[in-house]
Structure of Neuromedin-B receptor:
Amino acid sequence: MEAELLSELTALSFGGNGSVQLVPETTLLPPAWGMAMFTVRCVIPSLYLLIITVGLLGNVTLMKIFISNSAMRSVPNIFISSLAAGDLLLLVTCVPVDASRYFSEEWLFGEVGCKLIPAIQLTSVGVSVFTLTALSADRYKAIVKPMDIQTSSAVLRTCAKAIAIWIISILLSVPEAVFSELAHINDTDNATFTACIPYPMTDDMHPKIHSVLIFLVYFLIPLAIISIYYYHIAKSLIRSAHNIPGENSEHSKRQMETRKRLAKIVLVFVGFFAICWFPNHVLYMYRSFNYNEIDSSIGHMVVTLVARVLSFCNSCVNPFALYLLSESFRRHFNNQLRCRKKPQQERSASYLRNSSAIQTTSLKSNTRNTVTSVTQLNGHNLKQEMSS
């Protein structure tokens, strides 16, 4: 996704003759800008490294729990695992590529990278938002139409849906790979640098069309569908609160609480996605509709950095939200941590046992020596007494 948003370090300002200006030109900036750029190049990559580390730890652990525990292989958890896989894809492709821009104004990944990386990044975003839509539909069926009982075939159908989401996301990202191209650009000092552009640079309409389509397909339309699902879920929950049969009240209440808790988890995921990605979409459309005028202010750069960090953080938060909201996941997650600590504890226990064995052997040896000495001493005294 970030391939569309050119960094403030390599922002392009197109003139009437097709020439471009590199903004900001650090050699001509005031001291405040120079300090800001120095801070950005030091702090932001460190923050990106933290995001990658936390995201990998959380999502890998989540997938390991769902794959290794048969009891956790439910319909919602299959979708959540697919969501984690999409987040992992974003973390290992988008974040390192974006971090490289703070060290070099050149595109470092060649023509093949220019084709593949934007498509991979868009695929990961598609997997995330389409999986959230599928999760919302699943919660809608579970609460509004609870007669659809989950069976083993339902789990298989869910796996097929998750695979279909990946295929659709890949197909929708194909135009990104087709139209992305390397551009060799001259700045105001006639210095040439290379940038990866996600659309043809022939006119101003391409960035506008591109940004609007991205916003509609990967944000607005899916969130509108999710909102409709949750509107009906809310209506069903309010209605069912007044229509619980008396003889099955306890069972019905427990069942309804479980469904409400799962719906709440999905809604939290959707809320995080909307909050984290909305600034990024708005910023991209703002740039696309002001294609000839790049805002080179410090404020605009700060907004850009905040928007990017927020979008990347979305790939980290879901496992931790699930940890807080799901008791079963929290229990399995804690068990994973205990399993990692167990070998260290076993090594410590083994060391203590060996140390104890050595001390016991030493003690026994000392005891035998003491007994022998006392016996010999007593024998010597006895002989003396007999001789006297």
